[in-house]
Amino acid sequence: MLQALVSALAFFIAMIFGTRNWFAKIICLLVTALMMITSYSFIETSFLLYKKKAALENRQFKTVVAIPAGVEFDNADYETENLMELEFNNLNIDVFSLNISRDYYQENLSGKPLKISYLPNSRYAVSIKEYQVDTKE
What we know:
By secondary structure, this protein is an alpha+beta fold. Helices cover 45% and strands 22% of the residues. The longest helix has 36 residues, at 22-57. It is elongated and about 75 Å long. 8% of the residues are buried. The mean pLDDT is 81.
């Protein structure tokens, strides 16, 4: 995919220098800028996925135990709303991939202390469960 993007980028750069029509040069310049931004985004995403993969394989998770200060749900018009993000004081954790519906969250997890394991670089949740305090003395 990236190779095709670079090839198309080279084509549009060649078109900028090869055409004499100013309108075509402006269009090619805009397309080239868009492709460069897209290429940068692909490279950045690949690097983040590589870092995420290494942390996941080495089980280098951070854990937070707290009651969320805020929650964010997706805006689903036709499907069930899913939990997207849990907010703590200075920390937002992405929990969308865990497929927690609004109803399940409100019935089972809302207002309770949660134990969340997440990847430190991306703040991507790996597991979430209600935190049980041991009262054994």
